[in-house]
Specification:
Oligomer: heterodimer
Number of domains of chain B: 1
Structural class of chain A: mainly alpha
Distance between the termini of chain B: 38 Å
Strand content of chain B: under 5%
Shape of chain A: globular
Number of helices of chain A: 20
Order of helices and strands of chain A: HHHHHHHHHHHHHHHHHHHEHEE
Structural class of chain B: mainly alpha
Distance between the termini of chain A: 44 Å
Number of helices of chain B: 3
Helix content of chain B: over 70%
Number of domains of chain A: 2
Shape of chain B: elongated
Order of helices and strands of chain B: HHH
Number of strands of chain B: 0
Radius of gyration of chain A: 25 Å
Largest interface: A-B, 26 and 24 residues
Largest sheet of chain A: 3 strands, parallel
Strand content of chain A: under 5%
Chain lengths: ~550, ~60
């Protein structure tokens, strides 16, 4: 047996071989035979790219757990139809609400959440495939495109999206946004060639529609449009500065129009009383403080790539080292671009490197809230990843193809193992422990027709976290350290244990608090402080 | 049975990858590292080799 001699077998450093120019526009002269060949290779590529996130998150996907909002979403999607949609729409995300309602509505137990997480993982695979094909079409080498595509599925933002059942619409939004870019790029290319606008106009409108839908789903991920834009900016060196400016402006205008349309739609819905606007939907006023916050929190989180920020500041040194290293590599990339391709290209890189990460985080910058979670920085991480991969390619230009292949493989292997560890050990396992404690308590409840058993849950506190690393409400965090989550978790446990009893909630009394009341007797006591015994030093 | 079949497929793929690595014209150090990668990460290592690794007659 010998490996296929195709674009799939191209090694790092070899000249870029276009792997079907299907994106942005297919070449009209492609023969039927070559299409067939490309089709098989395209399938192999798709299968392998899909397999990577599946492998990385397999243990997380199929672990039995929920995470915070999962419990209330699951109940409300069955018992209070429309509540999830109304809540999400009040935060200007009506399509997100509808997707959550539909998916939680089709899920009947905590065990069933694995299908939603599997959906996120499959969508990550689809995103990787789309990005790989798209970057090759934009002029990146096949090896670079594979690296970026795979790393995108393994960054901390992707880890959160894969591990949290609410996360699949975030990836769906990113797929729509990336798709919108490639459709728009096809339309703009057609116009640039001076061809008939019969295809260009519908394509541009389709791109606008895709962006509009993604902006009404999850705005932060909608800006994933800028990731392939960064890819195009880096790869298309033959374009003049003026042409690059025009090209970038056209794309940014499309994004701006789509966001403005989505905003107008939401304001109209609020004005007509269809939904009620949340007080959290407000614009930032203190721009100086917001920019300082951006530089001190979201930007380092995105630059550090696979090294997690830690609220306990335990891993501060490796985190800062990763940020510094990424910064130095990016600076080296600009210097090498200047030396090899001239001042104009270096200035284009610098302009892209300064503006695109800011724009990719624009929604969170414009909004008054300051929430530096990983799920909001997916687009910014993607933009920086494109510049980092391009910079590393420049830095290693004189290395042998074998050495570059090994470097890429080492980086990908490290990213793969890190993603697997973070998602499983910092999300699935601690959240699974919380769920198991509640479930064990629910199993002790004896439902009787005459008497309602009483249950008390002693809520956990931040001191009970079972991981050494914790970041905001994502990695290593607790679900049960609030008033409402233990109650929702217990309701869910009783529902899962007694699916045949219609109104199981009426058959027991549940209370929760930080301390067990000394003057009352409870039939079952669930002590969530016991989470401490699961503590592991990572 | 399902897992056995998957295991056999992975084994065949890894053997194919390792034979290709050893027959390639890559440096000995690179060959060793690629082989270790495929053995330590049987599926992901194979995928990495398929996209980025040395092949028969090539570095």
């Amino acid at each position: 047996m010998s490996p296929p001699e195709s674009p799939l077998s191209e090694t790092v450093g070899a000249p870029a071989v276009p792997l079907t120019p299907a994106l942005p526009l297919p070449a009209a002269h492609t023969s039927v035979r070559s299409r067939r060949r490309v089709g098989v290779h395209g399938l192999i590529l798709a299968a392998l790219l899909m397999l990577v996130p599946l492998l990385a998150y397999q243990s997380t996907t199929f672990h039995e757990f929920g995470l915070r909002d999962d419990y209330s979403n699951l109940r409300e999607s069955h018992e209070e139809l429309g509540k999830v949609v109304t809540f999400c729409a009040s935060h200007a995300r009506p399509i997100y609400g509808w997707l959550l309602q539909a998916s939680y509505g089709a899920t009947s137990s905590v065990r069933g959440l694995e299908w939603m997480r599997l959906g996120a993982v499959l969508l990550l695979g689809a995103l990787a495939y789309l990005m790989c094909r798209g970057l090759v079409a934009l002029g990146w080498s096949f090896a670079e495109s594979v690296c970026i595509a795979l790393l995108l599925t393994l960054v901390p933002s992707a880890q959160v999206m894969a591990a949290w059942a609410v996360g699949w619409p975030y990836v769906f939004t990113a797929v729509l946004a990336a798709g919108a870019f490639f459709v728009a790029e096809g339309a703009f290319q057609t116009l640039r060639r001076g061809e008939t606008s019969r295809i260009a106009l519908p394509a541009a409108l389709l791109a606008l529609l895709l962006m509009g839908v993604s902006a009404l789903t999850y705005q932060s991920s909608a800006l994933f449009y800028l990731v392939p834009l960064a890819g195009g900016l880096i790869a298309q060196r033959s374009r003049s500065a003026r042409a690059t400016l025009r090209w970038g402006a056209m794309h940014l205008m499309l994004v701006a129009v789509a966001l403005a349309l989505a905003y107008a739609v939401m304001m109209s819905l609020y004005d007509h009383g269809v939904f009620v606007k949340s007080a959290r939907v407000a614009f930032e006023h203190d721009w100086g403080a917001k920019l300082a916050w951006f530089v001190s929190e979201p930007l380092p989180n995105a630059l550090s790539m696979f090294v997690l920020n830690d609220d306990h500041q335990r891993g501060r040194a490796p985190f800062l080292l990763a940020v510094t290293l990424a910064g130095l590599v990016l600076i080296a990339g600009i210097v090498l671009e200047w030396r090899r391709h001239g001042r104009e290209r270096a200035l284009i890189w610098l302009a892209g490197l300064v503006t695109l990460p800011l724009l990719a985080f624009a929604i969170s910058l414009v909004a008054s809230e300051r929430y530096a979670t990983y799920r909001t920085i997916f687009a910014m991480t993607g933009v920086l990843l494109c510049f980092l991969v391009a910079s590393v390619t420049s830095l290693t230009a004189r290395w042998s193809a074998g050495a570059r292949g090994l470097l890429a493989a080492s980086a990908l292997a490290a990213a793969f193992l890190t993603a697997q560890h973070h998602a499983f050990a910092l999300i699935a396992v601690p959240q699974g422990h919380e769920w198991q404690l509640i479930l064990d308590g629910a199993k002790q409840v004896r439902l009787k027709p005459t008497k309602r058993p009483s249950i008390f849950a002693i809520a956990s506190s931040p001191a009970d976290v079972s991981t050494a690393s914790i970041y905001h409400d994502e990695f290593g965090s607790l679900s049960s350290n609030s008033e409402w989550v233990p109650k929702e978790m217990f309701k869910r446990a009783m529902h899962d244990l007694h699916p045949d009893i219609a109104d199981v909630e009426a058959r027991y009394q549940f209370a929760t608090g930080t301390k067990l009341p000394s003057n009352r007797h409870f039939d079952v006591v669930i002590d969530l402080h016991r989470l401490r015994r699961f503590y592991l030093d990572y | 049975m399902r897992y056995s079949l998957w295991g056999i497929l992975v084994l065949i793929a890894d053997v194919w990858a390792i034979v290709n690595i050893l027959q390639s014209s890559a440096q000995t150090g690179n060959k060793v590292l690629w082989t270790v990668l495929v053995i330590v990460l049987p599926v992901f290592g194979f995928i990495l080799w398929f996209f980025l690794g040395p092949r028969t007659g090539r570095a």
